[in-house]
Amino acid sequence: METLNYLNNGHGAASWLLTRDHKRIALLYLVSITAFFAIGGLFAFMIRLELLTPAGDVMTADTYNKMFTMHGVVMVFFFLIPSIPAVLGNFLIPIMIGAKDLAFPRVNLLSWYIYILGGAFTLVAALSGGVDTGWTFYTPYSTAAANSHVITAAMGVFITGFSSILTGLNFIVTVHRMRAPGLTWFRLPLFVWSMYATSLIFILGTPVIAITVLLVAAERGLHMGIFDPALGGDPILFQHLFWFYSHPAVYIMILPAMGVISEIVQAFTRKNIFGYSFVAFSSLAIAIIGFLVWGHHLFVSGQSVYAGLMFSLLSFMVAIPSAVKVFNWTATIYKGSVQLDSSMLYAFGFIGLFTIGGLTGLFLAAVGLDVHIHDTYFVIAHFHYIMVGGAIMGYMGGLHYWWPKMSGRMYSEGWAKLAAGLIFVGFNLTFFPQFILGYLGMPRRYHAYPPEFQVFNVASTLGATVLAVGYALPLVYFIHSIFYGEKAPADPWGAKGLEWEIPSPPPTENFVVTPIVTHGTHQYAPSKEVGIV
Amino acid sequence: MSDGHAHAEHFPGRTHMPPVHVEGVPGAPHAHHPKLQHHFDNMPQQAEASTLGMWVFLVTEIMFFGGLFMAYLIYRQANPEGFAEASHHLNVFWGALNTIVLIVSSLTMALGVRAAQTSAPPKTQVFWIVVTMMFGATFLGIKAIEYADKFRLNHVPGPNFHWEGQHAAAAQMFYSLYFCMTGLHAIHMIIGLGIMTVIATMAWKRQFDADYYTPVEVAGLYWHFVDIVWIFLFPLLYLIGGHFVE
Amino acid sequence: MAVAHHVAPKSMYYMVFGALIVGTLLTVGAAKVDMGPLNNVVMLAIACTKASLVILFFMHVRWSSRLTWVVAMAGFFWLLILFGVGLTDYLTRGWVPGTLR
Asked: Among partner residues B47, B59, B106, which is closest to C71 by beta-carbon distance?
């Protein structure tokens, strides 16, 4: 019979829904996050459908507003922010540090239930008629004028925030207090460094958006006019509080993906990362500096010009640690023994597309330029390059890299490469035209546009269709692999790291004997170029 | 904690651990304490993880309340006279009394933690926790009196808000902040009372002694934090300007 | 072996309690004296002192690991980032002629 592992150790719904095993909780998240991704994708499809033609003929403007709002809310809060942390972070962090579980397994399960509850609130808001404020809930529209289900959606976001907070709390305590003997900070995998940095943002930023959406609900429901101009309130205060979290939130979305890329690049070039400590510190730098730049979302809001200049300068500075990572990945790949497995294809895609997204961020960080491209499709293209071309590619790459470990099965490499290719082509076809549209002046969040923009919009919708097929394929071949895939060995890729030293799938307790770590957990052949350790 | 640190330097992350640790080795210190959860190696590690976890949670609470303090900061700076005028209609006596009530409750809480830490009899531990709860409830009772007063005077923001002074808009903003900040604080107190009920029950069931008192300690950290928030709320809300309307 | 927590004598807790009560009375008294802008400074100083006493002694940070201390400080420091960086907007609005009020 099959050896006992975390998947067959206990059967039935209760053994999954009441589990304390971080690996099972990761799979609970995987299923729910995939469901929300599909829902968010559905809203995206509605948007792109409307934008096929210049006239607003598929739906009313009000309905369109609800489509992009729900797309944003679902994708940001219920897909991107949890994705890598809740699935890969939960699964891998204890294993990568040689522990049996996270510090607080029951809190981990609670995190998932809170996530589901928040998701339920948001879905109720969607099904009752939706919200039309944009995922950014700007006041005074959201507090005074919107007649959609703002409070319900705000509560959904508020509740889900606690899921993030508890996950971040768990990760921080785990990494500080549960590392195996000999596992010093500088022997940790870079994925753990980036998850730690992400957790700092969870802790320090999420509570601020929690109070902010609570205040929006309080103003709507209890007449506590904190943002009400009639009482001397300042709608821009909402924006300050909202973006104090929501800018660092984008680093929550990208840092884990960067950690995944660091792992994949080392495994599939058979080299240690170039400049380990620089890459490790750059994660912390991004997390910290990322808290100082939020005002770049407020350049044209009425914020003081001097504050704008300061935020602009800081926004240029936050690009530096990101660039450090890109340089170091490139240096790692240089003269490495490159294996073009599907995970590595995603890594290449990430490095290129994240670079484009990041550079266009610098365009937006220049105040003078932002005056012209703020609230245009340029912004939309920029953040989709980072979040889809970057974060989602990192998530997909990670899923492909660690799938054999998590499921104990190998997926079809041929189909995986095809899906990666479709995603890359579909993505660029969807979003590159949007840079042009933004430059030409097409505003965002409009359901109709001047006819001269149609060709770019049609290209974009076509690309989105290809992208959708690309995303659907892994669903098929991953599920297929569970039933028909070849059984995976402990280390299918020849990679280094504690997770590759235990069986695929791992036993419930991860390690029968606590490992003693005597060197960095990733020791590939040293490069001939420089004495890299 | 001083000698605990020396070990931590050698074996980071797993404090107080011997170099080789194999599962199930008999005689391993505290391998079989009934309260040791299986993913931890020993009781000190578990206790440290729990207290660190609560501190990380308190950091989130600091940022949570912080948004409200930010709003307060901005609006007070923009409307100093209006805020002073509004603040004068808060009862300093009740506010100061409540501050003292909470400080006493922090003392009794700290003594309750100490009782568990020194393996005091369960009755003593329960005594301190229940006294803490009584002072917490007193605090809420006084707040209820104050809130009722505000309702009576139509100082609650909304359609029924009525202000007789000069700065009506600023006053309504002040009271929006007052109700949001003290309301959120009161919710935290209520949750604290719930937590204390659980802790008191556990103490009554003889679960705490010098070897295991982490839940009391951690509950105490939460309680003290709620006290600290009030330590700032009291002067910021009640003591703006120097003339008091009783 | 218990968690190596320093057991403080009861007298320490009573002394800190006394200091907190004194601080409360002081802050009420200081509010009645018009010191101009100094009122705010005094009030904040007293509140910060009281908070520090609670943190160090009631919450045992005085005898906790360095990590605990760093975590506690990080929370307050981040709050200062929110206030400070946010205030750069509010305090400099209207500095450039022709822009907002």
From this structure: B59
Cross-strand partners of A487: A409
- How confident is the model over A450-469, as a mean pLDDT? 97
Contacts of C88 in chain B (CB under 8 A): none
Q: In whole angstroms, how far apart are CA A395 and each of A78, A388, A390, A405, A481?
A: 14, 10, 9, 15, 19
* Residue B126 clears pLDDT 80, i.e. is over it: yes
CA angle A318, A321, A324 (to 5 degrees): 145
φ, ψ of residue B158 in degrees (nearest 5): 130, -165
Between CA A267 and CA A494 the distance in angstroms is: 7
Give the SS3 label for residue A487.
strand
Q: Any residues with CB less than 8 A from the CB of A51 and at least 6 apart, and which?
A: A447, A449, A457, A460, A461
**pLDDT by residue (tens digit) across B52-74?**
999 999 999 999 999 999 999 99
Q: Which CATH class is domain A23-501?
A: mainly alpha
Domain range annotation of chain A: 23-501
What value does the mean pLDDT of chain B take? 87
- Give A209's pLDDT tier (boundaries 50, 70, 90): very high
Q: Which domains does chain B have, with CATH numbers?
A: 1-32 (no CATH), 46-238 (1.20.120.80)
Contact call for C88 and A305, based on CB within 8 A: no
What sign has the CA pseudo-torsion A195, A197, A203, A205? negative
CB A88 within 8 A of CB A260: yes
| Chain mean position to CA B170 | 30
Write down the residue that tokens 């205060």 correspond to: A237
Asked whether the beta carbons of A435 and A384 are under 8 A apart, the reply is no
DSSP letter string, B139-182: HHHHHHHHHHHHHHTT-SSSTT----SS-HHHHHHHHHHHHHHH
Per-residue pLDDT band for B1 (boundaries 50, 70, 90) equals: very low
Radius of gyration of chain C (CA): 19
Pairwise CA distance, residues A290 & A295, whole Å: 11
Prediction pTM value? 0.93
> Side chain identity at A414, as an amino acid letter?
G
Partners of residue B177 in chain A, C-beta under 8 Å: 226
Classify residue B26 by burial, with Cβ atoms within 10 Å: 0-12, 13-18, 19+: exposed
**Cβ atoms of A69 and A135 closer than 8 Å:** yes
* Percent of chain B's residues with pLDDT above 90: 82
In Å, how far is B34's CA from the nearest CA of chain C? Answer: 14
Are the C-beta atoms of B4 and B51 separated by less than 8 Å?
Answer: no
Write the DSSP symbol of residue A20. -
Q: Does the pLDDT at position B3 exceed 50?
A: no
Q: Is the model more confident about B9 or about A197?
A: A197
Q: Do B56 and C71 touch (CB under 8 A)?
A: yes
DSSP string, C31-43: HHS--TTHHHHHH
| Overall average pLDDT of the A485-504 stretch | 94
* Contact between B238 and B90 (Cβ < 8 Å): yes
A443: β partners:
A376
Provide, as residue numbers in chain A, all residues whose Cβ is less than 8 Å from the Cβ of C89: 236, 240, 295, 298, 303-304, 307
Determine if residue B154 is left, alpha or beta; phi over 0 gives left, psi from -120 to 50 gives alpha, anything else beta: left
The stretch B210-234 carries a mean pLDDT of: 97
Report whether pLDDT(C33) > 90: no
Give the closest-approach CA distance of A313 to chain C in angstroms.
Answer: 13
What is the enclosing helix (H) or strand (E) of A277? helix A276-289
User: Is C99 in contact with A291 (Cβ distance < 8 A)?
Assistant: no
- pLDDT over 60 (residue B131): yes
Choose among A140, A329, A119: nearest CA to A219: A140
* Domain edges within chain C: 1-64, 65-101
Instruction: Report whether pLDDT(B22) > 70.
Output: no
